[in-house]
Amino acid sequence: MVPEAEVKDVLDELQRLRARVPLLTGALAASTDGLIVAHDTPGIEAEGVAALTAAALGVSIRMADATGRGGFRELLIRGTSGYIATYAAGSSAVLTLLAEDRINVGRLHLEGRRAGARIGEVVDAAQERADTPVPPPRPAQRTLPRRTTTPDPT
Questions:
Q1: Cα–Cα–Cα angle for 116, 15, 93, nearest 5°?
Q2: What distances in angstroms separate CA 120 from CA 61, 63, 78, 80, 95, one per listed residue?
Q3: Rounded-to-integer distance, Cα 25 and Cα 99, Å
Q4: Which phi and psi (to 5°) does residue 39 adopt?
């Protein structure tokens, strides 16, 4: 799971992306197994889209592998009312964008790839920190009271 500070960074990136590309109607970042990291998807059930993204990602990875095309980079689906684009976001996340039919697909790819790279950096860094073992606490050292010597009156 991604820590709260990084979730905020990812959400900020999604919102900046939607501001830069006005014909985007939604954006979500999810883990490769379909769990939401962050989303800005008004009117869309984000959990379902994240789960479907994971399923499409699995098929895309197998297809790229079977055809010798290398690792997954992106997937574009065009429906009658617009586009769904999914981009690799580091090693453990994906970025899915929903766009109107009138969008410039070249701009969608340009902005989606850039945002995917930035989100991937944030998520991968958080994952690395989470995977780094925390050293066990050191035992507390007991300190003995200092002995003071008093001069012998004799």
A1: 30
A2: 17, 22, 24, 30, 9
A3: 5
A4: -150, 155
Q: C-alpha 127: how far from its chain's center?
A: 9
**Each residue's pLDDT expressed in tens, for the chain with a length of 154 residues:** 677 878 999 999 999 999 999 899 999 999 999 999 999 999 999 999 999 999 999 999 999 999 999 999 999 999 999 999 999 999 999 999 999 999 999 999 999 999 999 999 999 998 888 777 766 676 666 666 666 666 666 6
Give the Cα separation of 144 and 137 in Å (integer): 21
Which residue from 123, 133, 152 is spatially nearest to 10, judged by alpha carbons? 123
Which pTM value belongs to this model? 0.82
Whose structure tokens read 């996340």?
A: 93
60 vs 107: CA distance, rounded Å: 22
For residue 76, the cross-strand partners are 85
